[in-house]
Amino acid sequence: xxxxxxxxxxxxxxxxxxxxxxxxxxxxxxxxxxxxxxxxxxxxxxxxxxxxxxxxxxxxxxxxxxxxxxxxxxxxxxxxxxxxxxxxxxxxxxxxxxxxxxxxxxxxxxxxxxxxxxxxxxxxxxxxxxxxxxxxxxxxxxxxxxxxxxxxxxxxxxxxxxxxxxxxxxxxxxxxxxxxxxxxxxxxxxxxxxxxxxxxxxxxxxxxxxxxxxxxxxxxxxxxxxxxxxxxxxxxxxxxxxxxxxxxxxxxxxxxxxxxxxxxxxxxxxxxxxxxxxxx
Amino acid sequence: xxxxxxxxxxxxxxxxxxxxxxxxxxxxxxxxxxxxxxxxxxxxxxxxxxxxxxxxxxxxxxxxxxxxxxxxxxxxxxxxxxxxxxxxxxxxxxxxxxxxxxxxxxxxxxxxxxxxxxxxxxxxxxxxxxxxxxxxxxxxxxxxxxxxxxxxxxxxxxxxxxxxxxxxxxxxxxxxxxxxxxxx
Amino acid sequence: xxxxxxxxxxxxxxxxxxxxxxxxxxxxxxxxxxxxxxxxxxxxxxxxxxxxxxxxxxxxxxxxxxxxxxxxxxxxxxxxxxxxxxxxxxxxxxxxxxxxxxxxxxxxxxxxxxxxxxxxxxxxxxxxxxxxxxxxxxxxxxxxxxxxxxxxxxxxxxxxxxxxxxxxxxxxxxxxxxxxxxxxxxxxxxxxxxxxxxxxxxxxxxxxxxxxxxxxxxxxxxxxxxxxxxxxxxxxxxxxxxxxxxxxxxxxxxxxxxxxxxxxxxxxxxxxxxxxxxxxxxxxxxxxxxxxxxxxxxxxxxxxxxxxxxxxxxxxxxxxxxxxxxxxxxxxxxxxxxxxxxxxxxxxxxxxxxxxxxxxxxxxxxxxxxxxxxxxxxxxxxxxxxxxxxxxxxx
Lengths: 280, 184, 395
Known about the structure:
The complex is a heterotrimer. By secondary structure, chain A is α+β, with helices and mostly antiparallel strands. Chain A has helices spanning 18-54, 89-98, 160-164, 190-194, 216-219, 226-230, 247-254; strands at 75-80, 108-115, 120-124, 143-151, 170-172, 178-180, 201-202, 209-210, 236-240, 270-273. Helix content of chain A is 26%, strand content 17%. Chain B is mainly alpha-helical. Chain C has a domain at 23-181 and 352-395. By secondary structure, chain C is an all-alpha fold. In chain C, helix 2 (49-64) crosses helix 13. Chains A and B meet through helix 1, helix 2, strand 2, strand 4 and helix 5 of A and helix 2 and helix 7 of B.
């Protein structure tokens, strides 16, 4: 029985459909090469420009291979408000270390006073400390409890500041540190609006968005951030979240901790010991 | 033919738009900073710039490298974790001088001596020695908010209790307390 | 929680000032004017024919200056092109570069197409000099317009007008999204924000055209087409109701739910925004025009009264829209993110973001419009017969 090829209508035994077969081949060849040309054109024009902006590399920033022993650290910060004494040493250290202009703050310390009559007073620790300052003294007898809350950038996992920055100036380093590119920032202050914690400002000397960087320049040299170095009572703790043996992880494992404005879903990497719901 | 003539002005505009668009896109890609995208959706060089900022606040370790005796003095004391800066100033010039001497040929020389404190936080003086009670009180004078277990004092009451000889003198704390080993 | 008075130290000086109030105001006028033109070109509302061209030219003039308030606000305006060189796809603000360019192009091509008969005629008949060269370039060397070319032009005008509606919506809607998507600010954070901004924009555009059209007619000693004015008043009334309903719904629902940060927002509304919101935005800017406009559309009213009422209502509406932008932008920065205290907002007279600069920003497009009308005439009467000759039956 003659076999008829369903595709070409060809009789497989006889060679009576030369013309159809060669037409078929030509068509196939044409389609193949058209496909190659189209894909090539697309990849040459579209892909490079899209990939250029949104790529992550396969090697880490030190240029070492991914399967090497040195992995990029992931940093975190812990503030123990039950230890903070409101000395204000961290404030001076930060201002001096980072040339923060007067009237603008990369870090500050709040004080929460719960009075026995139910009132809550919130004020700010003066930069040169309380001794000799003109801050009105609070009558201890009226106070139920009070504590200090140092504030700084939360270096959120899902930072709204990075999301809204129009020029990719607000960025995350491979170590999880949120930074501002001083050459790409246009000073639009959208990130300042987006930050729920009020830790960002537009530096009135440089015109760039500015904030606590966890002293990136220090931590990359294996030093501690200036405020951590300055704290006389170890209320500020900085360390690696990816190292189970680090002091910060040990502390996080032993006591309950909180983050600020958790309901906003920013996932801060700044954790607090000893705060409760009245801290915003 | 008539159609082409009727469409001529549209085709010119389209051509301008396409060429302009392509030119714009080319210009745009040419202006993307060189290190952009290398590590992620940002300018990798920015991290280098930021990381190159100089450290100013010295850790106690940095001071102890030369001042070993002080390290030993403070080792088991309650003030072991207190930065030298708080009572002695930033010492930037001092550290620079000391490092220059250490690197020099015969490693000999003197550094600018410390001055008396000017009473300010931060001080305008590079290196000072403060025996002023304000240096102590800024941490130890009792303020609402301090933890229960912290050694805080009501100044007048404390000086009275401890029988200070000269309670109004600026360095009255040092009647009983040492500078590095602060136990009374 | 709300009792303590404490302001985060970086919140003391609000970073967004009058220029950020003006930018949505100007783009709102752009989008609103375009919608009026689209009502004629796409939805074939014949009554709006007298203002259709004016609407387009107004949209173009205001669009041309829309970047000025932004450039005055940026601390690094010299880096402004970064938003198109390294744009972030998650940033609404980065959308500006592309959306604005696209819309500006659309407007330029649309205006050019609408005015091609005049351009070609002036290019052919002009003696020389700068203006002659200008027209000849715009005419792209054409000395006459064939019926076929005109037919193609008309089709394109309609198509671009249709395309322009969603583009205009995005041009102003993204500004609303820019605010509405900021979860850190409870005064801004709502899905309604893009729609509120858009409705408000359309309202401002219609009101501006009612004023501009009648002003231009008055300057030329011509009577405005009252059917057109009344039609505009009807649209203004309708969109005003929509805008007011949305604005009130947003605040009303917040107050009803009384959740989260309502404790501080209620103080914001009742104490700090009492005048700019309660008095200006609601009473003077919404309720009074709402009552005036139905009177203005009464056919038996003498022309002068129609003009007066419609112009008054439009002026009040323009003030309302400005107040709405102010209440959103500045209002959202009057309270600290600590939700425990309020800051003061100071508007300087001079400087990049001062009152003088703001007035200049608003005047420049009007001056541009005055110049543009000389090149692109907006009064239809003498042109109608010529156009109908060229167009034939197509329209």
